[in-house]
Amino acid sequence: MKSTLELQEQLRTASFALPAALFMAATFALPLAAVAWQSFLSADGAHLSGFAYGKMLSTPLFFLVTATTLQISFGAMCFSLLLAYPTAYFLSRQPPRRRAFLMVFVLVPFWTSILVKSFAFTILLGQSGVVNQLLAAVGLGPIKLLFNRFGVMVGMSHFLVPFMIFPILTSLLKQPPELAKAAAIMGAGKFRIFWKVTLPLSVPGVTAGCLLVFILSLGFYVVPALLGGRKDMMLANLVDFYTREAMVWPVASAIAVVLTTVAVAAALALSRVPGGSSLLAGEDD
């Protein structure tokens, strides 16, 4: 009797998620299945074929763009970590009310369109932009800061830093303050406490943040298109090329399937990191 009531309660609870599940199935799962199906069609779409994957694997451009995507994603991950860790450490040392106020500035990038921010960077980093004017004032400019790898890194890191800050900050806040106090009583200095206690205990948050940022970086399209050069094409831009210019949709679909597979593999790795599963689920453990 009890198990029947529990089953009814579970079904009633699951019914609340049914509209969202149907919506995701209609707007995400079905289109994704259609893309996967199209990747196995022939060039004219008349019959099933391995044409798209054969074409993709025989094209040097695919391997070149894949290598570029991995390089940019790894670089953006490292650059974001360098910016995010000191910020998260500073926020973790603030009183709760001040930390809540300062978090507003971390969240500002979420409230601005990535397209608008990319155009703003063209004004800041352009040949006659504010940064180059300041560099010229001290005799160092102008320097080419746009339409190259540097511009892509700046644009992507500006968007990705908050995604790195959140898991690191959560990891730092979960550390018992008694550990640092005990180390201080034992005679350890501030740097030694950070190096031997704080940093090792924050590794799960750093790992989760790195994987999350790397997954997000793989699918970037707007920033490389607007701030990068010809050598900074990423896989999402290659999908766009085969869709709108080459008009070979099966190849574009095959590349999209590969990109999705890599992202799913990275997400599975993230779920195995301590705290990673709750991060994917949007929980604050």
From TrEMBL:
Predominant localisation class: membrane
InterPro entries given in the database record: MetI-like, MetI-like_sf
Every ABC transmembrane type-1 domain range: 66-270
Location of the protein in the cell: Cell membrane
UniProtKB keywords: Cell membrane, Membrane, Transmembrane, Transmembrane helix, Transport
GO cellular component term, pick one: plasma membrane
Residue intervals passing through the bilayer: 21-41, 61-88, 100-126, 146-173, 194-227, 247-270
Signal peptide residue numbers: none
Pfam families to which the protein is assigned, alphabetical: BPD_transp_1 (PF00528)
Gene3D superfamilies hit by this protein: MetI-like
Membrane topology reported for the UniProt record: Multi-pass membrane protein
GO biological process terms on file: transmembrane transport
Superkingdom: Bacteria
UniProt family annotation: Belongs to the binding-protein-dependent transport system permease family. CysTW subfamily.
Protein name: ABC transporter permease
